[in-house]
Write a structure and sequence with these properties.
- The chain is α/β, with parallel strands linked by helices.
- The chain folds into 5 domains: 1-167 and 515-542, Ribonuclease Inhibitor (Leucine-rich repeat, LRR (right-handed beta-alpha superhelix)); 217-368, Leucine-rich repeat, LRR (right-handed beta-alpha superhelix) (Alpha-Beta Horseshoe); 385-504, 2-Layer Sandwich (Alpha-Beta Plaits), CATH 3.30.70.330; 576-663, Phosphorylase Kinase, domain 1 (2-Layer Sandwich); 670-886, Transferase(Phosphotransferase), domain 1, CATH 1.10.510.
- The chain is 22% helix and 21% strand.
- The protein has 17 helices and 49 strands.
- Strands 2-4-6-8-10-12-14-16-18-20-22-24-26 form a 13-stranded parallel β-sheet, covered by helices on one side. Strands 9-7-5-3-1-35 form a 6-stranded parallel β-sheet, with no helix packed on it. A 6-stranded mixed β-sheet has the order 36-40-41-39-38-37, with helices on both faces.
- Helix 13 packs antiparallel against helix 14 (810-816).
- It starts with a helix and ends in a 16-residue tail after the last helix.
């Protein structure tokens, strides 16, 4: 008769764990939602795994000792949503039964030794978002559906498609991308795929990363590839591609471009280089380029590396004077005969193998082949182990402990200047934010030793240090591994990756050497089933109890006072943040993160995750905005989705705090720009574009929101400017809904800002959408004059009206116009713009245009001034003139 523990075959070596530790580990498995990542497990999974039918998550990643085939009985885990087996030693075919797991949203079998073909049945997983089968030994073609079998083209929810580093062959069938309309990452590099790149790839406009390099692809690059407006990284190198050099005009978000070692038709440096202002990296080695390099290419604002070696470039190299000082230019093995700035240049240039490096110029520094075995920056953010006792390592916060270590293998990244510390600190901060959000006891995280491997993957060593203790326990190590491989957080400048963990030395202070590996398996038998039933019942009971406690604890409206604040807000898609999370992301509301203040309270900058900078409005006691206004703002903004209306990320209603978390808009308010506080000037074309953006945002609120919304506080300090000076309407604390029963107006107490207030609304207390139009008219006059609404007792409407009426004195109008814009005779469309502004501020609301009419009139003004816009926008230093293409 076997002991029940023996029936589950948890076998221990001669110096193995005690029975109590084994039982603890089993219940930990039940309690911790099936996460056993990085546990130093070894052995095989048997067919009895189907007894774990209640599982919704199974993570056995980074247990290199787990081997054997994946049993077909895994298809009976019908509730499974997440299956992660990264970095194990499984081999054999992927079982066809895996297609039965129709609740799966995440499937990663990466970095094993699976072989055979990809099962057609995976196409049944219609809810699958993440598919990673990379770094295996899979063969055959990429399966698509036919009249008999499903295929990967039916993964309608798929965002991440990773099949890199296998032995896949055959063509990429066009049908593959017919329905994958949510794809972000297509990672198919280092296979044996042949044939042409399908045209259908250019139809998937959500794509951010495409890696097709190191295959046998041939033919021309599809001419519709430049439809991928959101693409960040494109790798097509080391194929047999022919035809013309691709035209990538319009790919304005492209950072990293790799086209090397293909057989394109001989051509000069593509002119579309100049239009891709986000480019950091260009690799076109051995691509039949000829002619000279236009100096303007080197002045691209973000450019870090351009490698055009082994081509047919000739003549005199002219790098101009506007190049980035950190730029690396590699032109080795071409036919360049002279260098115009041969002395006095301030960038890294490599010209060895060119005629210029013969004779008396051979000793110039640009003629030496760069020999650097490790060109990447050596990071030392984690101190050496010898600074601490007993083999511990000192963390960046000066704590000695045993960190969990491993390697991050990035499939893609958007930069090439590896001496820029910002990229590494951003990664550090992003990972730390993810740990804090998951409430893991992590003191600090740091990445070190960046290298690029033979697959062009960027690797980092990563150390995760425990908080206020020497070691992590098993649960924490497993949770760290799960978080890093699940990747449910954004990483700015980095694409997807694999996390391969090292064995952890010390669980609960016990060195790993004190016991041997654990061998885990599951066998079939009555005792096992009985144990599973009992454990499942206990687990279900504990989960229900925990869920009730968690629901009560995390309910953001548990303390909502319905009598004072109205009914509980009805929200759509916004996140609730705890006070502690907000406190951490603002560094305890430090003054250095304070970016503004007003009657409501202070506004802080915070970092929730990489790429997710937020602005946090924190109400102060006695603020002008009360609980009802707080509720109004979160209700309204949760249902508003428009590119010209600021986006609400979430809110905090806890510990007596009222905080609103908005997307961070970096360039401040329109009022700051007009007053000169922002440090840059707005030319006429840019002011027209800002007016159009703000008008579109308000028109959306009035005409497309359901129900319509009256802002009630439109002013230049409530119009924010983003990175590209696009305008977004903000601050909805005193907004009102205009329901069907309101008959076009709302009777309400007058609220707003003096100088922008509609006089008719002030007199009648009848609020209409035309009240917003009046306020917007004042903003239009601010755009023309750069003056505040009231200055020295004079209202801007009166001042402009008198200047326009005095036809006999043309200089009077020049005195009203912002000095940056004068003389006004150069401003195409100014008269129509002023007429529009004055029509918006008419005393009678009935005589004012609607916001929709205002939008159309501004569009007409811009269209009329189109020729001036296109010739003058480039004069605004640092602003992408591609905005012209989006004006209408």
């Amino acid at each position: 008769m076997y002991h029940p523990i023996g029936m589950v075959q948890i076998l221990v070596g001669t110096t193995g764990m005690g029975l109590n530790a084994l039982i603890h580990m089993w219940f930990q498995f039940i309690h911790n939602c099936r996460k056993l990542s990085s546990m130093s497990l070894s052995g095989r999974l048997s067919g009895g795994i189907d007894g774990l039918s209640w599982l919704n998550t199974l993570d056995l990643s980074n247990n290199i000792g787990l081997k054997g085939t994946l049993p077909s009985s895994i298809g009976k885990l019908k509730k499974l949503r997440i299956l992660m087996l990264v970095g194990c030693s499984f081999f054999g075919p992927i079982p066809d039964s895996i297609g039965s797991l129709q609740r799966l949203v995440y499937l990663s079998l990466a970095s094993n030794s699976f072989n055979g073909s990809i099962p057609h049945s995976i196409g049944n997983l219609s809810t699958l978002s993440w598919l990673d089968l990379s770094d295996n030994e899979l063969t055959g073609t990429i399966p698509v559906s036919n009249h008999m079998q499903p295929g990967l083209d039916q993964l309608f929810s798929l965002e991440h498609f990773h099949l890199a580093k296998n032995k896949l062959s055959g063509t990429i069938l066009p049908e593959l991308f017919n329905h994958l309309v949510m794809l972000k990452h297509v990672i198919l590099d280092h296979n044996q795929l042949s044939g042409e790149i399908p045209q259908t790839l250019g139809l998937v406009q959500t794509l951010e990363v495409v890696r097709l390099d190191s295959n046998l692809l041939n033919g021309s690059i599809p001419d519709n590839l430049n439809n991928l407006m959101n693409l960040h990284e494109l790798y097509l190198s080391i194929n047999i591609l022919t035809g013309p050099t691709p035209n990538l005009t319009g790919m304005n978000n492209l950072y990293y471009l790799e086209l090397s070692n293909n057989s394109f038709n001989a051509s000069e440096v593509p002119p579309w280089f100049l239009s891709l202002l986000s480019l950091t990296t260009i690799y076109m080695v051995n691509t039949n380029l000829k002619g000279s390099i236009p100096p303007d290419v080197l002045s691209l604002p973000q450019l870090e590396t351009i490698v055009l070696s082994n081509n047919n470039l000739y003549g005199t190299l002219d790098i101009g004077s506007n190049y980035n000082k950190n730029l690396t230019l590699d032109l080795q093995n071409n036919f360049i005969s002279d260098f115009k700035q041969g002395t006095g240049y301030n960038m890294e240039i490599m010209l060895s193998g060119n005629p210029i490096c013969r004779g008396n110029k051979a000793t110039e520094k640009y003629c030496f082949i760069q020999k650097n075995n490790n060109p990447l920056l050596s990071l030392n953010s984690c101190s050496a182990a010898q600074d601490c006792d007993s083999g511990k390592i000192r963390s960046p916060t000066c704590m000695c402990s045993y960190p969990q270590t491993g390697t991050l293998h990035f499939f893609s990244y958007s930069f090439s200047n590896f001496e820029n510390w910002t990229y590494y600190t951003t990664l550090d901060d992003s990972l730390m934010s993810a740990f804090l959000s998951s409430e893991l006891p992590v003191d600090s995280v740091c990445v070190t030793d960046p290298t690029i491997d033979v697959y062009s993957y960027l690797q980092f060593r990563v150390k995760v240090c425990p908080f206020r203790k020497d070691t992590f326990n098993r649960t924490e190590v497993s949770d760290i591994g799960f978080l890093l491989n699940y990747q449910d957080f954004p990483l700015q400048q980095y694409g997807p990756y694999l996390y391969i963990a090292d064995d952890y030395c010390c669980f609960g202070g016990v060195n790993k050497s004190s016991h041997t590996s654990i061998i885990v398996g599951v066998s079939v038998g009555a005792s096992v089933l009985f144990m599973l039933i009992v454990c499942s019942a206990i687990y279900a009971f504990l989960q229900r109890s925990r869920a009730k406690r968690a629901t009560k604890k995390s309910d953001p409206f548990a303390s909502w006072d319905g009598d004072k604040s109205g009914s509980i807000p009805q929200l759509k898609g916004v996140r609730w943040f705890s006070f502690e999370m907000i406190r951490k992301c603002t560094d305890n509301f430090s003054d250095t993160n304070c970016i503004g203040y007003g009657g409501y309270g202070k506004v802080y900058r915070g970092l929730l995750a990489p790429g997710e900078l937020v602005a946090i409005k924190r109400a102060q006691q006695g603020s002008l905005q009360g609980a009802l206004e707080f509720k109004t703002e979160i209700e309204l903004l949760s249902r508003i989705h428009h590119k010209n209306v600021v986006n609400l990320v979430g809110f905090c209603y806890e510990q007596g705090e009222q905080m609103l978390v908005y997307e961070y808009i970096p360039n401040g308010t329109l009022r700051e720009s007009l007053s000169g506080k922002s440090g840059f000037q707005l030319n006429w074309t840019r002011r027209l574009k800002i007016a159009l953006d703000a008008a579109r945002g308000l028109a959306y609120l009035h005409e497309l929101a359901d129900p319509p919304i009256i802002h009630r506080d439109v002013k230049s300090s409530n119009i924010l400017l983003d990175d590209n000076l696009n305008a977004e309407v903000a601050d909805f604390g005193i907004s009102k809904l205009l329901g069907d029963s309101d008959k076009g107006h709302v009777s309400t107490q007058v609220k707003g800002t003096f100088g922008y207030l509609d006089p008719e609304y002030y007199m009648t207390q009848q609020l209409t959408d035309r009240s917003d139009v009046y306020s917007f008219g004042v903003v239009l006059l601010e755009l023309i004059t750069a003056k505040p609404p009231i200055e020295r007792g004079n209202h801007i409407v009166k001042v402009v009206s008198e200047a326009m009426d005095d036809q006999s004195n043309s200089r009077k109008l020049d005195q009203v116009i912002d000095v940056i814009l004068t003389p006004c005779t150069n401003l195409k469309g100014l008269q129509k713009f002023m007429n529009l502004a004055m029509s918006c501020v008419r005393e009678s609301a009935a005589e004012r245009p609607s916001m929709g009419e205002v939008v159309r009139e501004i569009e007409n003004i811009i269209q009329m001034a189109e020729e001036v816009l296109f010739t003058s926008s480039s004069s605004f230093d640092g602003i992408d003139d591609s905005w012209n293409s989006n004006l209408l």
